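Our working data are protein records whose layout never changes between entries. An example says more than a description, so a record of this kind follows.
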Amino acid sequence: MEARYEVLRRATEEVAAVDAHAHNLVEHGSAFPFLRCFSEAEGDALALAPHSLSFKRSLRDIAALYNCEASLEKVEKFRSAEGLKSIGSKCFQAANISVILIDDGIAFDKMLDLESHKAFAPVVGRVLRIERLAETIINAVMFSTDGYAFPETYYLGAKRARDVVYRVLSAACEDGDLSIQEAIEAIEDIFRRNALNLYKLNVVNGSINHETAIVGKRVSLSSVEEDVLFVRIIWCDASGQHRCRVVPAGRFYEITRNKGVGLTFAAMGMTSFCDGPADGSNLTGVGEIRLVPDMPTLVRLPWSRHEEMVMADMQIRPGEGWEYCPRNTLRKVTKVLLDEFNVTMKAGFENEFFLRRKLVSNGVEMWIPYDNTNYCSTSAFDGASSILQEVYSSLKDSGIVVEQLHAEAGKGQFEIALKYILCTVAADKLIYARETIKSIARKHGLVATFLPKPDLDDFGSGSHVHLSLWENDQNVFMGSSKDNFHGMSKTGEQFLAGVYHHLPSILAFTAPHPNSYDRIQPDTWSGAYLCWGKENREAPLRTACPPGVPLDLVSNFEIKSFDGCANPHLGLAAIVAAGIDGLRRHLKLPEPIESNPSDHSSKLKRLPQNLQESVESLSADKVLHELIGDKLVTTAIAIRKAEINHFAKNPGALKDLIDRY
């Protein structure tokens, strides 16, 4: 049943919750005992708490969050060393709580004031005491952690609630009492909408317009109601271009959210240079699918507050995914990975892009770099700081977690790295991140482009992706201290060996444009030779050991040959398919390359040096044809061949792509 309701589990985990009733946190050093995190007992009875099953379970969950030994002593030692701000951030981020409504009528020793809680959640408000709320009849279920004193109580409350709601609603779906879409709506109601409606809160993408306010049953936190006018229904085609259909909000919420909009078959056969299907794609203007909004992905546009956007599924008939749908394809192959090996894949993308100014001189259009600085330049970041601040805030409002950002080596080039998350979600969020970056740059009179090599004399841009394998909450890509191959588990090695074996074919999805191969060159940190290495940034496959992981182990691997022309769902689907083949056939990796692969050029095979070579590899790759789908692979190949022919004849057409990618 678990695999069938993966979308339901994702909705339960991803919804940014409104905690409708909680209490104040306390400072470190409060006389309020930490054992009360696990039990409401007092006095002598509290000493018995460590013997209870609930204590052991909760302690285990907290220790896993902190990556420490599951003992009360070790957890308390970690808390003391990290401090309240650090552990609070960990707990609230893991709990995915966007709004806290605090009942501060209960006093604790060294209790934090309301303002201090803003360090842990985007929105904090004071709720009227429950006695006052009882004056109004409430007929809706609302989520609350009933957290108090310690951040861990919020984390545990949210974790338990999400688990229970998922199990109850998935059982209701299994019994036929609810459809999956109805269950997803119930999740939104329980965790968000019911509380927002009760308190008349105006929320935009998980954040209320005013950060802190006194809220009661008739108090609004917004002085101006921002009505939604348009909803953008987003998809990414097989050439990697983002496209949308726009529906007025009234019609969207009345009809389109359930029935979708029509779209021609030809839309998935289009190239980067022509809005018509490529020859040999087997797609024409005859036939229509439905673009059906995936409502859990709906967000308000931070840069255009009267609009929302939502990812779409392509359905051939109600409830039946179209075999050319990229999102459905990724879900399909990840289901195989889960069903056969009980493993899921998480992904975290690094977004490299150029900021350009458009200059027209004597009728000639030119793209001028935003600056001429170098890698990690402080002056580059300072010059673009106002733009990057707006990008960061908008990504945060959209539920996208940024881990770091910096200036890159190219002229006017920057990188924004996103937190790893379940790969099906990561692909959606990458599309939203690109939309956000391009739109905000446009507001500032600039163009942001993710084109791999807009200037052949400058550095290139990639969308490097870090990947890890998980079984439940355990990273199973990483080996153990006793059993590992260069820091990887047996599962990790076999999966990566599959990716290694199929990498030339994978490139037709992850580096899908002729311009992609202008970037993939030796000695440019882009990975030009077929090899892998531990912390080797010249290798196309790099195993990584981030802070907190023992030095002899690795937690993830990076694919360098992934760029901004790729449809992220198709790119990840190809990677998962290759990994499945590695697991099925128990493939093994060669020894890693520990220096510049160029120094071993006589022994190493070059990866495809142009798109034609990667297309030839894909054409012969039976595994990717089978797992991704022969029809979709055939269409992708047709599009790639059309791109090859067009740009060979029209090299100057490259500048037209700066706006498109």
